[in-house]
Design a protein that fits this description.
By secondary structure, the chain is of the alpha/beta class. The chain has one domain: HAD superfamily/HAD-like (Rossmann fold, 3-Layer(aba) Sandwich). It has helices spanning 2-21, 46-54, 69-77, 79-98, 121-124, 136-145, 152-164, 179-189, 209-222, and strands spanning 40-41, 44-45, 107-111, 167-175, 196-200, 226-232, 247-249. Strands 5-4-3-6-7 form a 5-stranded parallel sheet, sandwiched between helices. Strand 4, helix 8 (179-189) and strand 5 (196-200) form a beta-alpha-beta unit. Helix 4 (79-98) runs parallel beside helix 7. It binds 2-acetamido-2-deoxy-beta-D-glucopyranose and magnesium ion (MG).
Amino acid sequence: MFPLLLLFLATLVATSQAQGDHIAHQIHLLRPQSGARKDDVPGLSCVSWRLAVETNNMVGWKTVPKECENYVGHYMLGDQYRKDSAVVTNEAYLYAKSLKLGGKGKDVWVFDIDETSLSNLPYYAKHGFGVEQFNHTSSNEWVNTGKAPALPESLKLYKKLLSLGIKVVFLTGRPNDQRTVTTNNLKNAGYHSWEKLILKGSSYSGKTAVVYKSTERRKLERNGYRVVGNIGDQWSDLLGGHSGNRIFKLPDPLYYIS
Ligand SMILES: *[C@@H]1O[C@H](CO)[C@@H](O)[C@H](O)[C@H]1NC(C)=O
Ligand SMILES: [Mg+2]
């Protein structure tokens, strides 16, 4: 009896430790231990492809190369995506901490939502990690569940920025009719307050994210806000003018938005 009980207790302890260190911060159940995976397929280096994507050398691409599905899947579910994200958000925090704030409550930080504040990895894990053509119907079904988890590194940055006295503006390409589900999802994921939540209005239909987002940031400035920082997973979150005093690009090899 006694050794069995000990074994049982040891298992319990090990399980709760694993949950504390690891599982509590995972954003998808499939997350394996490592982000490493053979990254070369004949004629194509998936690492080089990803670097070109992240540096905005590759633009306008529609889907992840089929040969890189395994590579991108392991990158996203493993440690590397999270480590890469943490480098970005740590730099953002160091920069924010160094700022002399205006003191009028008008200093804001712009956060994109998808693959920045919230993660759609549970959806993409079921849809080929960007290999499949984007499907509005199934993607909207997922968004409307309101179950996207926070990207933990961004949530941590969000909390630290608030504690510094910087206000947060969410600026998302999600349409206005997803305001309620997005509000609830943000709150459930740990984002409890914000200065503004800007969704894409119908006046921007047919306009690129670059145009929409830069126009909305210009409006913020005209209303007296100072955009001290801007974080997003797409270059279209960050380019186009009125970008903010500093921009921070999170990794995203899943899709491209112009
Ligand atoms: C897109 O998603 C919907 C809903 O899941 C599905 O019925 C449809 O077949 C999908 N379209 C394509 C082209 O895969
Ligand atoms: Mg995004």
